[in-house]
Amino acid sequence: MKSHEMIELINEFMRKYAKDDTLKVWLGPELNVLMANPKDVEVVLGTLRFNDKAGEYKALEPWLKEGLLVSREMKSHEMIELINEFMRKYAKDDTLKVWLGPELNVLMANPKDVEVVLGTLRFNDKAGEYKALEPWLKEGLLVSRGRKWHKRRKIITPAFHFKILDQFVDVFESGSRELLRNMEMDRLRQAKTGLNLYDWINLCTMDTICETAMGVSINAQTNADSEYVQAVKTISMVLHKRMFNIFYRFDWTYMLTPLARAEKRALNVLHEFTEKIIVQRREELIRCGNKEVDTFMFEGHDTTSSALVFFFYNIATHPEAQAKCFEEISSVMGQDNSTPVTYELLNKLHYVDLCIKETLRMFPSVPLLGRKVLEECEINGKLIPAGTNIGISPLFLGRREELFSEPNSFKPERFDVVTSAEKLNPYAYIPFSAGPRNCIGQKFAMLEIKAIVANVLRHYHIDFVGDTTEPPVLIGELILRTKDPLMFTLQEHVY
Ligand code: HEM
Protein backbone atom coordinates (compact mmCIF):
# COMPACT_ATOMS: atom_id res chain seq x y z
CA MET A 1 0.00 0.00 0.00
CA LYS A 2 1.41 3.40 -1.04
CA SER A 3 1.67 6.22 1.50
CA HIS A 4 -0.87 8.51 -0.16
CA GLU A 5 -3.32 5.59 -0.36
CA MET A 6 -2.87 5.13 3.38
CA ILE A 7 -3.74 8.78 4.02
CA GLU A 8 -6.77 8.59 1.74
CA LEU A 9 -7.91 5.41 3.41
CA ILE A 10 -7.59 6.93 6.86
CA ASN A 11 -9.57 9.96 5.62
CA GLU A 12 -12.25 7.68 4.28
CA PHE A 13 -12.34 5.58 7.44
CA MET A 14 -12.54 8.73 9.52
CA ARG A 15 -15.51 9.95 7.49
CA LYS A 16 -17.26 6.60 7.57
CA TYR A 17 -16.50 5.07 10.94
CA ALA A 18 -15.22 7.73 13.36
CA LYS A 19 -17.42 8.72 16.23
CA ASP A 20 -16.85 12.16 17.71
CA ASP A 21 -13.71 12.49 15.51
CA THR A 22 -12.26 9.36 17.03
CA LEU A 23 -11.41 6.23 15.05
CA LYS A 24 -10.83 2.90 16.72
CA VAL A 25 -8.38 0.54 14.98
CA TRP A 26 -7.29 -2.86 16.22
CA LEU A 27 -3.64 -3.46 15.43
CA GLY A 28 -2.97 -7.05 16.37
CA PRO A 29 -4.39 -7.38 19.84
CA GLU A 30 -3.77 -3.71 20.56
CA LEU A 31 -6.50 -1.11 20.41
CA ASN A 32 -5.36 2.03 18.61
CA VAL A 33 -7.42 5.15 18.74
CA LEU A 34 -6.84 7.89 16.21
CA MET A 35 -7.91 11.21 17.66
CA ALA A 36 -8.73 14.11 15.40
CA ASN A 37 -10.54 16.41 17.76
CA PRO A 38 -8.26 19.21 19.05
CA LYS A 39 -10.02 19.03 22.41
CA ASP A 40 -8.95 15.40 22.82
CA VAL A 41 -5.48 16.23 21.52
CA GLU A 42 -5.20 18.83 24.26
CA VAL A 43 -6.05 16.32 26.96
CA VAL A 44 -3.49 13.81 25.64
CA LEU A 45 -0.60 16.13 24.89
CA GLY A 46 -1.35 18.92 27.36
CA THR A 47 -0.52 16.97 30.54
CA LEU A 48 1.91 14.27 31.66
CA ARG A 49 -0.93 11.79 32.18
CA PHE A 50 -0.31 10.08 28.83
CA ASN A 51 3.44 9.97 28.96
CA ASP A 52 4.07 6.47 27.50
CA LYS A 53 5.02 6.18 23.83
CA ALA A 54 3.26 3.80 21.46
CA GLY A 55 4.86 0.55 20.25
CA GLU A 56 5.69 1.96 16.80
CA TYR A 57 8.37 4.14 18.35
CA LYS A 58 10.45 1.03 18.97
CA ALA A 59 11.74 1.26 15.43
CA LEU A 60 13.41 4.55 16.35
CA GLU A 61 15.46 2.95 19.08
CA PRO A 62 18.57 2.22 17.01
CA TRP A 63 19.04 5.98 16.62
CA LEU A 64 17.64 7.24 19.85
CA LYS A 65 18.74 4.45 22.17
CA GLU A 66 17.37 5.18 25.60
CA GLY A 67 16.57 8.77 24.70
CA LEU A 68 13.52 10.74 25.65
CA LEU A 69 11.34 9.66 22.77
CA VAL A 70 11.14 5.95 23.57
CA SER A 71 10.16 4.57 26.91
CA ARG A 72 7.73 1.70 26.47
CA GLU A 73 7.82 -1.55 24.52
CA MET A 74 5.89 -4.75 24.04
CA LYS A 75 7.91 -7.96 23.87
CA SER A 76 7.01 -10.64 21.33
CA HIS A 77 6.43 -13.25 24.02
CA GLU A 78 3.91 -10.90 25.59
CA MET A 79 2.33 -10.78 22.16
CA ILE A 80 1.94 -14.59 22.12
CA GLU A 81 0.41 -14.53 25.59
CA LEU A 82 -1.95 -11.76 24.56
CA ILE A 83 -3.10 -13.69 21.49
CA ASN A 84 -3.80 -16.67 23.73
CA GLU A 85 -5.79 -14.50 26.07
CA PHE A 86 -7.71 -12.82 23.27
CA MET A 87 -8.48 -16.20 21.73
CA ARG A 88 -9.91 -17.40 25.02
CA LYS A 89 -11.86 -14.21 25.64
CA TYR A 90 -13.02 -12.97 22.25
CA ALA A 91 -12.87 -15.75 19.68
CA LYS A 92 -16.18 -16.95 18.29
CA ASP A 93 -16.29 -20.48 16.95
CA ASP A 94 -12.48 -20.61 17.44
CA THR A 95 -12.04 -17.67 15.10
CA LEU A 96 -10.55 -14.35 16.08
CA LYS A 97 -10.93 -11.21 14.02
CA VAL A 98 -8.11 -8.72 14.18
CA TRP A 99 -7.89 -5.44 12.31
CA LEU A 100 -4.34 -4.62 11.29
CA GLY A 101 -4.59 -1.09 10.01
CA PRO A 102 -7.31 -1.21 7.39
CA GLU A 103 -6.82 -4.95 6.74
CA LEU A 104 -8.97 -7.66 8.24
CA ASN A 105 -7.01 -10.59 9.65
CA VAL A 106 -8.72 -13.72 10.82
CA LEU A 107 -6.93 -16.19 13.06
CA MET A 108 -8.42 -19.66 12.68
CA ALA A 109 -8.00 -22.28 15.37
CA ASN A 110 -10.64 -24.83 14.45
CA PRO A 111 -9.12 -27.83 12.59
CA LYS A 112 -12.27 -27.99 10.44
CA ASP A 113 -11.65 -24.45 9.16
CA VAL A 114 -7.92 -25.20 8.84
CA GLU A 115 -8.83 -28.16 6.65
CA VAL A 116 -10.88 -25.97 4.30
CA VAL A 117 -8.05 -23.43 3.99
CA LEU A 118 -5.05 -25.75 3.71
CA GLY A 119 -6.69 -28.86 2.31
CA THR A 120 -7.39 -27.51 -1.17
CA LEU A 121 -5.78 -25.11 -3.60
CA ARG A 122 -8.62 -22.62 -3.27
CA PHE A 123 -6.62 -20.50 -0.85
CA ASN A 124 -3.26 -20.74 -2.53
CA ASP A 125 -2.23 -17.10 -2.21
CA LYS A 126 0.08 -16.11 0.58
CA ALA A 127 -0.77 -13.33 3.03
CA GLY A 128 0.66 -9.83 2.72
CA GLU A 129 3.41 -10.57 5.26
CA TYR A 130 5.17 -12.84 2.77
CA LYS A 131 5.84 -9.81 0.55
CA ALA A 132 8.91 -9.07 2.66
CA LEU A 133 10.40 -12.32 1.36
CA GLU A 134 10.08 -11.38 -2.30
CA PRO A 135 13.27 -9.35 -2.78
CA TRP A 136 15.19 -12.47 -1.84
CA LEU A 137 13.06 -15.39 -2.93
CA LYS A 138 11.48 -13.72 -5.98
CA GLU A 139 9.10 -16.22 -7.53
CA GLY A 140 10.45 -19.20 -5.60
CA LEU A 141 8.15 -21.99 -4.47
CA LEU A 142 7.35 -20.56 -1.06
CA VAL A 143 5.99 -17.24 -2.30
CA SER A 144 4.84 -17.97 -5.86
CA ARG A 145 1.21 -18.47 -6.73
CA GLY A 146 -1.20 -19.94 -9.23
CA ARG A 147 0.07 -21.88 -12.21
CA LYS A 148 3.65 -20.78 -11.66
CA TRP A 149 3.61 -22.39 -8.23
CA HIS A 150 1.99 -25.54 -9.60
CA LYS A 151 4.58 -25.94 -12.34
CA ARG A 152 7.49 -25.39 -9.99
CA ARG A 153 6.15 -27.74 -7.37
CA LYS A 154 5.83 -30.48 -9.98
CA ILE A 155 9.39 -29.96 -11.19
CA ILE A 156 10.91 -29.92 -7.73
CA THR A 157 9.00 -32.77 -6.10
CA PRO A 158 11.24 -35.52 -7.56
CA ALA A 159 14.28 -33.84 -5.95
CA PHE A 160 12.87 -34.96 -2.58
CA HIS A 161 12.29 -38.57 -3.64
CA PHE A 162 13.55 -41.05 -1.07
CA LYS A 163 16.24 -42.34 -3.44
CA ILE A 164 17.71 -38.86 -3.59
CA LEU A 165 17.31 -38.33 0.15
CA ASP A 166 19.35 -41.47 0.59
CA GLN A 167 22.31 -39.72 -1.06
CA PHE A 168 21.90 -36.67 1.17
CA VAL A 169 22.54 -38.71 4.30
CA ASP A 170 26.29 -38.63 3.53
CA VAL A 171 26.13 -34.85 3.64
CA PHE A 172 24.24 -34.94 6.95
CA GLU A 173 26.87 -37.34 8.27
CA SER A 174 29.85 -35.15 7.38
CA GLY A 175 28.03 -31.97 8.48
CA SER A 176 27.25 -33.41 11.90
CA ARG A 177 30.85 -34.62 12.35
CA GLU A 178 32.01 -31.04 11.85
CA LEU A 179 29.34 -29.93 14.33
CA LEU A 180 30.75 -32.37 16.89
CA ARG A 181 34.21 -30.85 16.44
CA ASN A 182 32.86 -27.36 17.16
CA MET A 183 30.82 -28.59 20.12
CA GLU A 184 33.85 -30.36 21.60
CA MET A 185 35.97 -27.23 21.25
CA ASP A 186 33.28 -25.12 22.92
CA ARG A 187 32.68 -27.74 25.62
CA LEU A 188 36.32 -27.63 26.68
CA ARG A 189 36.15 -23.84 26.82
CA GLN A 190 32.85 -23.48 28.65
CA ALA A 191 32.55 -26.58 30.74
CA LYS A 192 30.73 -24.82 33.58
CA THR A 193 28.75 -21.94 32.10
CA GLY A 194 27.34 -24.07 29.33
CA LEU A 195 27.24 -23.49 25.61
CA ASN A 196 24.76 -22.01 23.21
CA LEU A 197 24.06 -24.89 20.84
CA TYR A 198 21.97 -22.81 18.48
CA ASP A 199 24.86 -20.99 16.83
CA TRP A 200 26.77 -24.19 16.04
CA ILE A 201 23.69 -26.05 14.84
CA ASN A 202 22.67 -23.15 12.62
CA LEU A 203 26.04 -23.17 10.85
CA CYS A 204 25.75 -26.93 10.43
CA THR A 205 22.31 -26.78 8.81
CA MET A 206 23.54 -23.95 6.57
CA ASP A 207 26.38 -26.19 5.37
CA THR A 208 24.12 -29.16 4.70
CA ILE A 209 21.47 -27.19 2.81
CA CYS A 210 24.10 -25.56 0.59
CA GLU A 211 25.79 -28.81 -0.16
CA THR A 212 22.56 -30.68 -0.89
CA ALA A 213 20.76 -27.91 -2.81
CA MET A 214 23.71 -26.45 -4.71
CA GLY A 215 26.27 -29.21 -4.59
CA VAL A 216 28.88 -26.83 -3.19
CA SER A 217 30.37 -26.61 0.22
CA ILE A 218 30.41 -23.16 1.83
CA ASN A 219 32.20 -24.42 4.97
CA ALA A 220 30.09 -22.25 7.25
CA GLN A 221 31.17 -24.31 10.23
CA THR A 222 34.85 -23.67 9.70
CA ASN A 223 34.42 -20.19 8.25
CA ALA A 224 31.56 -18.52 10.11
CA ASP A 225 32.77 -15.04 9.19
CA SER A 226 32.53 -15.54 5.43
CA GLU A 227 30.61 -12.95 3.44
CA TYR A 228 27.92 -15.41 2.35
CA VAL A 229 27.26 -16.78 5.87
CA GLN A 230 27.01 -13.24 7.24
CA ALA A 231 24.68 -12.23 4.40
CA VAL A 232 22.32 -15.15 5.15
CA LYS A 233 22.26 -14.10 8.80
CA THR A 234 21.62 -10.46 7.90
CA ILE A 235 18.78 -11.29 5.56
CA SER A 236 17.07 -13.57 8.11
CA MET A 237 17.27 -10.77 10.67
CA VAL A 238 15.87 -8.26 8.16
CA LEU A 239 12.96 -10.53 7.24
CA HIS A 240 11.98 -10.99 10.88
CA LYS A 241 12.01 -7.28 11.48
CA ARG A 242 10.06 -6.43 8.36
CA MET A 243 7.29 -8.87 9.06
CA PHE A 244 6.76 -8.06 12.67
CA ASN A 245 7.51 -4.41 13.06
CA ILE A 246 4.85 -2.16 11.62
CA PHE A 247 7.36 0.63 11.02
CA TYR A 248 9.35 -1.53 8.62
CA ARG A 249 6.30 -2.93 6.91
CA PHE A 250 5.43 -0.07 4.60
CA ASP A 251 7.94 0.34 1.77
CA TRP A 252 8.02 4.11 1.98
CA THR A 253 9.21 4.24 5.59
CA TYR A 254 11.27 1.09 5.27
CA MET A 255 13.37 2.46 2.41
CA LEU A 256 14.64 5.22 4.70
CA THR A 257 16.00 2.87 7.34
CA PRO A 258 19.57 1.54 7.68
CA LEU A 259 17.95 -1.91 7.63
CA ALA A 260 16.96 -1.42 3.99
CA ARG A 261 20.56 -0.60 3.08
CA ALA A 262 21.83 -3.65 4.98
CA GLU A 263 19.28 -5.78 3.12
CA LYS A 264 20.44 -4.45 -0.24
CA ARG A 265 24.08 -5.22 0.50
CA ALA A 266 23.24 -8.72 1.73
CA LEU A 267 21.02 -9.41 -1.29
CA ASN A 268 23.84 -8.50 -3.63
CA VAL A 269 26.12 -11.00 -1.91
CA LEU A 270 23.47 -13.74 -1.93
CA HIS A 271 22.36 -13.30 -5.52
CA GLU A 272 25.91 -13.00 -6.81
CA PHE A 273 26.82 -16.20 -4.99
CA THR A 274 23.90 -18.23 -6.27
CA GLU A 275 24.37 -16.93 -9.79
CA LYS A 276 28.03 -17.90 -9.73
CA ILE A 277 27.10 -21.39 -8.57
CA ILE A 278 24.40 -21.71 -11.21
CA VAL A 279 26.89 -20.80 -13.91
CA GLN A 280 29.39 -23.31 -12.54
CA ARG A 281 26.87 -26.09 -12.21
CA ARG A 282 24.51 -25.23 -15.02
CA GLU A 283 23.80 -28.80 -15.94
CA GLU A 284 22.63 -30.07 -12.58
CA LEU A 285 20.81 -26.95 -11.46
CA ILE A 286 19.22 -25.86 -14.68
CA ARG A 287 15.93 -27.41 -13.72
CA CYS A 288 15.21 -25.47 -10.60
CA GLY A 289 17.26 -22.30 -10.92
CA ASN A 290 18.46 -19.86 -8.29
CA LYS A 291 15.08 -18.88 -6.93
CA GLU A 292 14.63 -22.34 -5.51
CA VAL A 293 18.18 -22.47 -4.22
CA ASP A 294 17.47 -19.26 -2.30
CA THR A 295 14.13 -20.63 -1.11
CA PHE A 296 15.79 -23.77 0.21
CA MET A 297 18.45 -21.67 1.91
CA PHE A 298 15.73 -19.74 3.66
CA GLU A 299 13.22 -22.51 4.45
CA GLY A 300 15.78 -25.24 4.92
CA HIS A 301 18.21 -24.16 7.59
CA ASP A 302 16.65 -21.87 10.23
CA THR A 303 13.60 -24.11 10.52
CA THR A 304 15.69 -27.23 11.06
CA SER A 305 18.04 -25.60 13.56
CA SER A 306 15.13 -24.19 15.56
CA ALA A 307 13.61 -27.71 15.75
CA LEU A 308 16.95 -29.22 16.80
CA VAL A 309 17.56 -26.79 19.64
CA PHE A 310 14.05 -27.31 21.04
CA PHE A 311 14.57 -31.08 20.70
CA PHE A 312 17.75 -30.90 22.79
CA TYR A 313 15.94 -28.69 25.30
CA ASN A 314 13.09 -31.22 25.63
CA ILE A 315 15.27 -34.25 26.12
CA ALA A 316 17.69 -32.42 28.42
CA THR A 317 14.77 -31.51 30.67
CA HIS A 318 13.32 -35.05 30.44
CA PRO A 319 16.20 -37.38 31.38
CA GLU A 320 14.05 -40.50 30.94
CA ALA A 321 13.38 -39.55 27.32
CA GLN A 322 17.07 -38.83 26.76
CA ALA A 323 18.00 -42.23 28.19
CA LYS A 324 15.52 -43.93 25.87
CA CYS A 325 16.86 -42.06 22.84
CA PHE A 326 20.42 -42.98 23.79
CA GLU A 327 19.55 -46.67 24.24
CA GLU A 328 17.76 -46.75 20.91
CA ILE A 329 20.61 -45.03 19.08
CA SER A 330 23.22 -47.34 20.66
CA SER A 331 21.27 -50.46 19.82
CA VAL A 332 20.62 -49.39 16.21
CA MET A 333 24.03 -47.85 15.45
CA GLY A 334 26.22 -50.03 17.65
CA GLN A 335 28.88 -49.00 20.17
CA ASP A 336 31.43 -47.73 17.66
CA ASN A 337 30.90 -43.98 17.42
CA SER A 338 32.75 -43.74 14.15
CA THR A 339 30.18 -45.87 12.28
CA PRO A 340 28.52 -43.46 9.84
CA VAL A 341 24.76 -42.92 9.97
CA THR A 342 22.85 -44.28 6.96
CA TYR A 343 19.35 -43.92 5.57
CA GLU A 344 18.38 -47.43 6.71
CA LEU A 345 19.73 -46.94 10.24
CA LEU A 346 18.03 -43.57 10.69
CA ASN A 347 14.71 -45.07 9.65
CA LYS A 348 14.97 -47.47 12.56
CA LEU A 349 15.07 -44.69 15.17
CA HIS A 350 11.45 -44.97 16.17
CA TYR A 351 11.51 -43.39 19.63
CA VAL A 352 13.73 -40.50 18.43
CA ASP A 353 11.12 -39.92 15.72
CA LEU A 354 8.37 -39.61 18.35
CA CYS A 355 10.46 -37.10 20.32
CA ILE A 356 11.02 -34.96 17.20
CA LYS A 357 7.31 -34.98 16.39
CA GLU A 358 6.39 -34.02 19.93
CA THR A 359 8.99 -31.24 19.87
CA LEU A 360 7.45 -29.86 16.68
CA ARG A 361 4.00 -29.92 18.29
CA MET A 362 5.19 -27.86 21.26
CA PHE A 363 7.68 -25.71 19.36
CA PRO A 364 6.78 -25.63 15.65
CA SER A 365 9.59 -23.86 13.76
CA VAL A 366 7.05 -21.87 11.73
CA PRO A 367 4.61 -20.58 14.35
CA LEU A 368 2.24 -18.79 11.97
CA LEU A 369 1.06 -19.36 8.39
CA GLY A 370 -0.88 -16.84 6.33
CA ARG A 371 -3.15 -16.96 3.32
CA LYS A 372 -4.89 -14.19 1.42
CA VAL A 373 -8.56 -14.47 0.43
CA LEU A 374 -8.93 -13.07 -3.07
CA GLU A 375 -12.68 -13.34 -3.41
CA GLU A 376 -15.41 -13.19 -0.82
CA CYS A 377 -16.11 -16.70 0.39
CA GLU A 378 -17.70 -18.77 3.09
CA ILE A 379 -15.79 -21.09 5.39
CA ASN A 380 -17.98 -23.38 7.47
CA GLY A 381 -20.72 -20.76 7.69
CA LYS A 382 -18.38 -17.80 8.26
CA LEU A 383 -18.43 -15.10 5.60
CA ILE A 384 -14.90 -13.95 4.77
CA PRO A 385 -14.58 -10.74 2.76
CA ALA A 386 -12.16 -10.43 -0.17
CA GLY A 387 -8.76 -9.11 0.90
CA THR A 388 -8.81 -10.81 4.31
CA ASN A 389 -5.61 -12.37 5.57
CA ILE A 390 -6.16 -15.73 7.19
CA GLY A 391 -3.71 -16.67 9.91
CA ILE A 392 -3.28 -20.24 11.10
CA SER A 393 -0.93 -20.91 13.97
CA PRO A 394 0.67 -24.37 14.30
CA LEU A 395 1.90 -23.18 17.70
CA PHE A 396 -1.52 -22.22 19.00
CA LEU A 397 -3.17 -25.35 17.58
CA GLY A 398 -0.50 -27.63 19.06
CA ARG A 399 -1.12 -26.19 22.52
CA ARG A 400 -4.91 -26.41 22.53
CA GLU A 401 -6.16 -28.53 25.37
CA GLU A 402 -9.22 -29.56 23.36
CA LEU A 403 -6.90 -31.15 20.78
CA PHE A 404 -3.96 -32.45 22.84
CA SER A 405 -4.29 -33.51 26.47
CA GLU A 406 -1.82 -31.82 28.81
CA PRO A 407 -0.62 -29.68 25.92
CA ASN A 408 2.31 -28.14 27.79
CA SER A 409 3.82 -31.51 28.75
CA PHE A 410 6.39 -33.31 26.66
CA LYS A 411 4.82 -36.71 25.94
CA PRO A 412 6.39 -38.33 22.87
CA GLU A 413 4.19 -41.45 23.29
CA ARG A 414 1.17 -39.54 22.06
CA PHE A 415 2.64 -39.94 18.56
CA ASP A 416 2.99 -43.70 18.84
CA VAL A 417 1.30 -45.63 16.02
CA VAL A 418 -1.69 -46.89 17.94
CA THR A 419 -2.93 -43.53 19.12
CA SER A 420 -0.92 -41.34 16.77
CA ALA A 421 -1.82 -37.71 17.45
CA GLU A 422 -0.92 -36.64 13.92
CA LYS A 423 -3.16 -39.24 12.29
CA LEU A 424 -6.08 -38.42 14.54
CA ASN A 425 -5.77 -34.74 13.84
CA PRO A 426 -4.15 -34.10 10.45
CA TYR A 427 -5.28 -30.47 10.51
CA ALA A 428 -4.50 -29.84 14.16
CA TYR A 429 -0.92 -31.09 14.08
CA ILE A 430 0.53 -28.97 11.29
CA PRO A 431 4.21 -28.05 11.92
CA PHE A 432 4.85 -28.75 8.23
CA SER A 433 1.54 -27.17 7.21
CA ALA A 434 -0.84 -29.58 5.43
CA GLY A 435 -2.54 -30.22 2.11
CA PRO A 436 -1.12 -29.59 -1.36
CA ARG A 437 1.02 -26.64 -0.27
CA ASN A 438 2.67 -28.33 2.69
CA CYS A 439 6.41 -28.36 3.34
CA ILE A 440 8.18 -30.01 0.46
CA GLY A 441 11.25 -30.55 2.64
CA GLN A 442 9.47 -32.43 5.45
CA LYS A 443 11.19 -35.79 4.90
CA PHE A 444 14.51 -34.09 4.25
CA ALA A 445 14.16 -32.18 7.53
CA MET A 446 13.17 -35.23 9.60
CA LEU A 447 16.11 -37.18 8.21
CA GLU A 448 18.58 -34.38 8.83
CA ILE A 449 17.34 -33.83 12.38
CA LYS A 450 17.66 -37.56 13.08
CA ALA A 451 21.18 -37.72 11.64
CA ILE A 452 22.37 -34.81 13.78
CA VAL A 453 20.57 -36.06 16.91
CA ALA A 454 22.00 -39.57 16.46
CA ASN A 455 25.56 -38.35 16.10
CA VAL A 456 25.34 -35.85 18.96
CA LEU A 457 23.62 -38.18 21.44
CA ARG A 458 26.06 -41.02 20.74
CA HIS A 459 28.81 -38.75 21.98
CA TYR A 460 27.25 -36.63 24.71
CA HIS A 461 24.78 -36.63 27.53
CA ILE A 462 23.12 -33.22 27.47
CA ASP A 463 22.02 -31.17 30.48
CA PHE A 464 20.08 -27.94 30.41
CA VAL A 465 21.58 -25.00 32.27
CA GLY A 466 18.84 -22.84 33.71
CA ASP A 467 15.47 -22.94 35.36
CA THR A 468 13.68 -26.18 34.47
CA THR A 469 10.53 -25.24 36.36
CA GLU A 470 9.66 -22.36 34.02
CA PRO A 471 9.12 -22.99 30.28
CA PRO A 472 11.33 -20.92 27.95
CA VAL A 473 9.89 -17.59 26.87
CA LEU A 474 9.06 -17.82 23.18
CA ILE A 475 9.38 -15.20 20.50
CA GLY A 476 6.93 -15.81 17.70
CA GLU A 477 8.73 -14.33 14.73
CA LEU A 478 8.98 -15.85 11.30
CA ILE A 479 10.85 -18.77 12.86
CA LEU A 480 10.19 -19.70 16.47
CA ARG A 481 12.95 -18.89 18.92
CA THR A 482 13.43 -18.14 22.59
CA LYS A 483 13.88 -14.77 24.25
CA ASP A 484 17.13 -15.91 25.88
CA PRO A 485 19.48 -18.48 24.35
CA LEU A 486 19.01 -22.02 25.64
CA MET A 487 22.27 -23.11 27.28
CA PHE A 488 23.52 -26.67 27.73
CA THR A 489 26.39 -28.58 29.27
CA LEU A 490 27.75 -31.74 27.65
CA GLN A 491 29.20 -34.85 29.23
CA GLU A 492 31.04 -37.36 27.11
CA HIS A 493 29.57 -40.87 27.11
CA VAL A 494 31.97 -43.55 28.28
CA TYR A 495 31.33 -46.91 26.66
C1 HEM B 1 11.83 -28.70 10.83
C2 HEM B 1 12.00 -28.18 9.63
C3 HEM B 1 10.94 -27.53 8.79
C4 HEM B 1 9.70 -27.06 9.13
C5 HEM B 1 9.05 -27.07 10.52
C6 HEM B 1 9.09 -26.53 7.93
C7 HEM B 1 7.81 -25.98 7.87
C8 HEM B 1 7.24 -25.50 6.72
C9 HEM B 1 5.92 -24.92 6.67
C10 HEM B 1 5.00 -24.73 7.85
C11 HEM B 1 5.68 -24.58 5.37
C12 HEM B 1 4.43 -23.91 4.82
C13 HEM B 1 4.65 -22.42 4.78
C14 HEM B 1 3.44 -21.67 4.35
O1 HEM B 1 2.40 -22.21 4.00
O2 HEM B 1 3.56 -20.45 4.35
C15 HEM B 1 6.85 -24.94 4.59
C16 HEM B 1 6.98 -24.74 3.23
C17 HEM B 1 8.13 -25.04 2.51
N1 HEM B 1 9.25 -25.64 2.99
FE1 HEM B 1 9.58 -26.26 4.90
N2 HEM B 1 9.97 -26.68 6.89
C18 HEM B 1 11.11 -27.29 7.36
C19 HEM B 1 12.23 -27.64 6.61
C20 HEM B 1 12.37 -27.47 5.26
C21 HEM B 1 13.51 -27.89 4.48
C22 HEM B 1 14.72 -28.63 5.06
C23 HEM B 1 13.30 -27.50 3.18
C24 HEM B 1 14.15 -27.69 1.94
C25 HEM B 1 15.15 -28.51 1.85
C26 HEM B 1 12.00 -26.84 3.14
C27 HEM B 1 11.43 -26.30 2.01
C28 HEM B 1 10.17 -25.75 1.95
C29 HEM B 1 9.59 -25.16 0.75
C30 HEM B 1 10.26 -25.07 -0.62
C31 HEM B 1 8.31 -24.72 1.09
C32 HEM B 1 7.28 -24.08 0.18
C33 HEM B 1 6.38 -25.15 -0.40
C34 HEM B 1 5.28 -24.61 -1.31
O3 HEM B 1 4.83 -23.48 -1.10
O4 HEM B 1 4.86 -25.35 -2.19
N3 HEM B 1 11.47 -26.85 4.42
N4 HEM B 1 7.79 -25.50 5.44
UniProtKB/TrEMBL annotation:
Molecular-function GO term, any one: iron ion binding
Binding site for heme: 439
GO CC term, one of those recorded: endoplasmic reticulum membrane
Family to which the UniProt record says this protein belongs: Belongs to the cytochrome P450 family.
SUPFAM superfamilies found in the cross-reference section: Cytochrome P450
Coiled coil feature spans: none
Membrane topology reported for the UniProt record: Peripheral membrane protein
Key words of the record: Endoplasmic reticulum, Heme, Iron, Membrane, Metal-binding, Microsome, Monooxygenase, Oxidoreductase
Organism superkingdom: Eukaryota
Major localization class: endoplasmic reticulum
Originating organism: Drosophila guanche (Fruit fly)
Cofactor(s) of this protein: heme
Subcellular localization(s) per the UniProt record: Endoplasmic reticulum membrane; Microsome membrane
Name listed for the protein in its UniProt record: Blast:Cytochrome P450 4d1
